[in-house]
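Supplementary Text 2. Reproducibility record for the structural model of the 210-residue chain.

All settings were left at their defaults, and a single model was retained for analysis rather than an ensemble. We include the record here because the model underlies the residue-level annotations in Supplementary Table 4.
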Amino acid sequence: MAADKRILALGAVAAVLVLVTGGLWLSKAKSGDEFAQCRKSVVAGGMESFGTPFTLTDENGTRVTDKEVFTEPTLLYFGYTFCPDVCPLDAARNGEVTALLEDKGMSINPVFVSVDPARDTLEVLRSFTDAMHPRMVGLTGSAEEIDAVAKGWRTYYKLNNQDDAENYLVDHMTNTFLVMPGQGTVEFFGRDVTPEDMAARVGCFVEAAG
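Retained model, structure tokens:
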């Protein structure tokens, strides 16, 4: 009798697990979000509120559009090369994530958008990105172009160059955005995310995209 009760109890637990799992699957299916199992960030307006079409200049002097940049999963970061600490660390982390995913056979595109176009010349930008990862692309443009792109990704920055036109700092946000081809921005990562955790999370999106 006791054995029968245990069998019935185990059967009930299994049935509940099936129902819960099925409910979660149906919930994701109904939401139409193929990345639901990968996403951790929540933001007002949804991820679709991040992004805008653009034309900028890459580190080699070529004018490129957003469609030409986002041809594969892209890690998009806004910073500046004269940054004394945060930007080099974040860019190096993104380069490491790129390398970790390469080891797993996944190709992603690390992109660094300069919010300091006056000092970040093409040569300076190219030297900076090449040091972070051979495939990292640096983008720049006019102050108006950078303003528009930063606004599109809802990222704040402010040049503190009123008193010193050469050795100023730039206040800026430090999120890295994951942009998927044809999908737009699907996730963002804070600077406290480790390379290993970030690689695992980005990998989830890449695999989900097929």
